[in-house]
């Protein structure tokens, strides 16, 4: 794990009021139109399924306001966009994992009693990891532990041991090398250095775990190790993760930085360390994301030129493209990011 960054002179709780942005727009994100695909028709069924599961283990309190907020997230629509050809039984698991990520993210990023207590947070995630690795929930297990146990049982019934090992490794990186580091920055009031933040965000986003599900959503699509480790495949996986994670920072800027004073956001990092105004930092963030998307397209062209014809690799690349595009489509319609005071006009609903 990387050491914590030195304290900066910027206190995020004392930043001045931020005016509405009139220049940059989310429509400036550059995504090839040829990537468009029809989403799965299971979106609403997945929402009903996952809501019932998180309610049954107590992960979602039976409070009308909390349930309405969960339903407004429309996680089934995200799953439908990013795994458009998935089978129902597997999509239901994928959607449950997305709910796991978002519900945990809400606790770690919004609740000071969780996100600003790194020792408590470490014990919390270690308990879930122990269950994911094969242990049983503790006698007084948290709802997240119980939900993790259910997910592990269903994943193991559908996936190979090799895939499970990779998935668990990525979950460990997400929680131990990503989330805990972000929590330490929030607790200490430090703003990560730019390059370190980009590395941290790739892990803290949980996107690598979601990309593992590209192989899982359809039977017969798991990549053998020699294909998974191909340099071009790994580079496209890295670029896709960065694009999705940093794009999410645009959508969640208001919630994370302006509402919760959390310094772990790409736009905020650019503002602090490059001395940019809000509009300039958003333009810079969009340009960085677009540059990564262009690099992804170049990697796909190189992969196709290599005449590697294994259909599992080609399907995996299509899955990465679906994530880049589907994440934007879903983020524009979900209730998680819409706000009448959003810096982005597209979200002021």
Can you describe this structure?
By secondary structure, this protein is an all-alpha fold. The protein has one domain: Farnesyl Diphosphate Synthase (Orthogonal Bundle). It is built from 16 helices and no strands. The protein has helices at 43-56, 64-72, 75-82, 88-110, 112-115, 118-132, 143-156, 161-188, 194-204, 207-216, 225-228, 231-251, 253-259, 266-274, 278-305, 311-333. Helix 1 crosses helix 4 (88-110), helix 3 packs across helix 4 and helix 14 (266-274) packs across helix 15 (278-305). The longest helix is centred in the middle third of the chain and has 28 residues, at 161-188. The termini are far apart. Residues 1-21 have low confidence and may be disordered.
Name the features.
disordered N terminus; EC 4.2.3.-; Isoprenoid_synthase_dom_sf; terpene synthase activity; mainly alpha; lyase; 65% helix; Farnesyl Diphosphate Synthase; 349 residues
Classify the fold: give the CATH topology.
Farnesyl Diphosphate Synthase
In quaternary terms, these chains amount to single chain
Mean pLDDT: 91
Count the helices. How many?
Answer: 16
Radius of gyration: 19 Å
Strand content: under 5%
List the uncertain runs: 1-21
Terminal CA distance: 40 Å
Topology:
Elements: H1 43-56, H2 64-72, H3 75-82, H4 88-110, H5 112-115, H6 118-132, H7 143-156, H8 161-188, H9 194-204, H10 207-216, H11 225-228, H12 231-251, H13 253-259, H14 266-274, H15 278-305, H16 311-333
Helix pairs in contact: 1-3, 1-4, 3-4, 3-16, 4-7, 6-7, 6-8, 8-9, 8-10, 9-12, 9-14, 12-15, 12-16, 14-15
